[in-house]
Amino acid sequence: MLSIAVFRGTWTDPSQDAAASAILQQRPVQEEQAGPSTSFAPTITSTPRPAVPPEAPTGETVYHQAPASSLPKSGSRKTLFASTPLLDHTYFREPLPDSDSDSEDSLDYGEIHLAEGTASATLQQQGLEPAEATQEVFFEDHILDGLDVNVFDLDLGAEEDVEEDFSGEEDTSEDYEKEAREHINTAKCIAYVDRLMELLRSIHGEKCNKCKSKLHYRSVQKGTALLVMWECENHHGSSWSSQPRYRGMFSGNLHVASSIIASGNSFQKIATMAKFTNLYFMSRTHFTNIQKVYVAPAINEYYGRKQDELLERYHGLDVVLSGDGRADSPGYSASIMTYTFCDEEQKQILHTTTVLVQEAGGKSPNMERIGFERGLDFLRSKVNVTGVVTDAHPQIAATLRKSQKYDSIHHQWDIWHGCKNLVKKISHASQQKGCGELQPWIPKISNHFWYSAMTCENDAAKLAGNLNGMLHHIVNEHEWPFTTDDRPGKCQHDELEEDRDTAWLKPGSLPHEKLYDILHDKRFMKTLPYYTDFRHTGCLEAFHSTLLMYATKRSYFTLVGYVARVKLAVLDTNYHANRPQAKTKDGKLKWRRKYNKRTKKHVVVPVPEPKSYAYMPELLTAIYSKRATTPGHISQHVSMAEDDPRRVHPTIAMREAEPTEELVAKHKSRFAKE
């Protein structure tokens, strides 16, 4: 077994540490025992449940033993993880039907009945719990839906690191922030448990220094930490832990749990890696509790401060916004939509808003319009919005056109999406019988659309005239009497080469007529005024690529977990926006080759400087500070906010679910044979 060790371990004396002393006095210490195997399975309800006392208390505290293994002792494995994955950092897939719904599973670490009247509080302070007090709880099958579970179908479940209650500290913020930075900056390594036990034996020996009787050593897993206790038959001994505690919690558990979400990873993947390496790791329940109470609130507060600082810099300035929506899953089955606005010039993300499908009456296509209006109204209260650039969403276009409160906003469409839609129509036409000659012209028509929008000088008529010139050029006609905007018709290119790879079309041929119909389509002509400013939303496309790292579309996230990950993506994007191009040691700019499958040519793209994530220590310090300022137990209940959209309806079903027993009775596999 391996352990994540922080070699600033703590030594304690039984006379000063009541927790370790109580445990050692209750039970004869065994040789290098793996410790209690306390396992909690998550439950759909977050109401605390009382611990189940032992049926027949005996004269000593009995712990679950690690399962037997055919491997030698040094290589034997323990069950490290619970069988359910974490698809978001804090909450289950389906919100609860009451105000308790965003509290994952509030376990009750109340009084644990021990023999001889030992107080249960001593166990909680040390982070240990007898096996008889563990109550197995069950969960609905729907939380097992998702890619991570289907792919990593493993028996996962770890030692529960039961933390003690924390009542808050009276020291100043400078004190606990300084201590937090020390915990964060301390170097960590992976150490083997048997080597640590060997080291402790070499230091303290095999016999007690006071009574010369034999010392018995015992190791206990506490999440990612290792707790070792030793004692002789006369109760002389001490204990050591591989990690320091921060406000009663093992620092490594808090740091690892925070880093998993801050780096955009999922608990399931990291836990699976730990299982394959036989590495000490925390349970899913303990991880979700840390995210629920400390990580998510700290991210929200940190993001709020950074957003306020950013918007303050835009005070009194005219801003053109780029807006685009992103669903949490492909297709029309989205349950969460995030609409993002960024400054079109500075490429800074100014605001994101999240909409649940419940707010759109269960219709996912309406979510983008709701997110657009909500986000735009917020930004108009903070900055002077003069223009908005979006894709060709019909509901958004109608809203800006018909609503009087948006009369002062100039609406433009993204040129990239417009060009994409035009190319799509021409590609479809080129696949029809007798129109194959149009296929080689598609890249040239696309480039001409970009050039026409860029040079139209905010004039829709000139844009239409430039586009119409393609109909003459494509048939080798480079001068014509007049354009659609009453200008002399002439191509802007230089003298053409005689040897050409692309053949000219014949005037009046079927491909030529198809192109004419597309460019003179009435609906298409009405959209041209939306492209006259030559705007695009490329910065948001880059942001959505970053967001995939934090909240992939291949996994499900509930509202609070999804929002926290979106905010992490915003912090990442804003901090690393407009990075300069990287240079070699000789001072030359770095470039990277890229192959374009459409043009079948290689191109070069600039290589930006690597990301530094210099803000991450500050964010981690904020998470540690949240632990230092949040009283109560780690499994405490967290209520939904009053404006939480899940209060509209707790699930995307928009109706009450049938009992599981009835669904099981009705269930019949489509593959079942009669």
Structure description:
With 674 residues, this protein is α+β, with helices and mostly antiparallel strands. 34% of the residues lie in helices and 13% in strands. It has 19 helices and 17 strands. Strands 11-10-9-12-13 form a five-stranded mixed sheet, with helices on both faces. The chain has a four-stranded antiparallel sheet with strand order 2-6-5-4, with helices on both faces. The chain has a two-stranded antiparallel sheet with strand order 1-3. Helix 4 (173-185) packs across helix 18 (616-629), helix 8 packs across helix 17 (559-575) and helix 8 crosses helix 18 (616-629). The radius of gyration is 32 Å and the shape is elongated. Residues 12-147 have low confidence and may be disordered.
Can you tag this structure with a few keywords?
single chain; 19 helices; five-stranded mixed sheet; alpha+beta; 674 residues; four-stranded antiparallel sheet; 13% strand
Helix amount: 25-40%
| Proportion of residues in extended strands | 5-15%
The dominant shape is elongated
Q: Briefly note the structural class of the backbone.
A: alpha+beta
Radius of gyration using CA atoms only: 32 Å
Q: Averaged pLDDT, please?
A: 76
Taking the alpha carbons of the first and last residues, their distance comes to 50 Å
How is the biggest beta sheet arranged?
5 strands, mixed
Unreliable residue stretches: 12-147
Strand order of the largest sheet: 11-10-9-12-13
Number of helices: 19
* Count of DSSP strands: 17
